[in-house]
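Hey, quick one: can you model this chain's 3D structure?
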Amino acid sequence: ISSSHEISQKNNHEKGFFLLLFAVFVVVDLLALLVGAHSYGSLTEMQSKNDQLIMTSGPIVSSVRASDAKGGIAAGNGPEGRSLVLIEQDNIGTYETRIYLFQGHIVQEYALGGAPYTPERATVLSESDTFSFSLADGLLSIETDAGVSQVALRNMQGGE
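Sure thing. Here's the predicted structure for all 160 residues.
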């Protein structure tokens, strides 16, 4: 009788051990699932911020790259602060693409060199309350509400 009682007790211990082991696996799986969901959420948020930065700064960066020539980039005075001026010279004259902040928007205006700013005729590139830029060691940094974009200027690195 005592041996059947010992066998029954041993089976209960084995069942308890396997239940405990199963519970540990379930908890570990749930934790892995939570960590994965959190990581996915963080990646999605980062991607969204990156997309916003590209949408805001993409047209500006493209314009800068297209005008990347010696003497092709300057600073001007827009209606609400500094403007990024992209200068094009040809046989007819000098033309400027001016990028600046106006009434909560980053706008782009194409004009004859030296002409007054006319923001009511400018094209809206994106919404932003911030627009600033700096140039150091051949690197143009452009800051908007979405973040900072940087453009390495070829003309300042020995390119054309």
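One thing worth noting: The beta strands are 73-78, 81-89, 94-102, 105-112, 123-127, 131-136, 139-144, 147-152.
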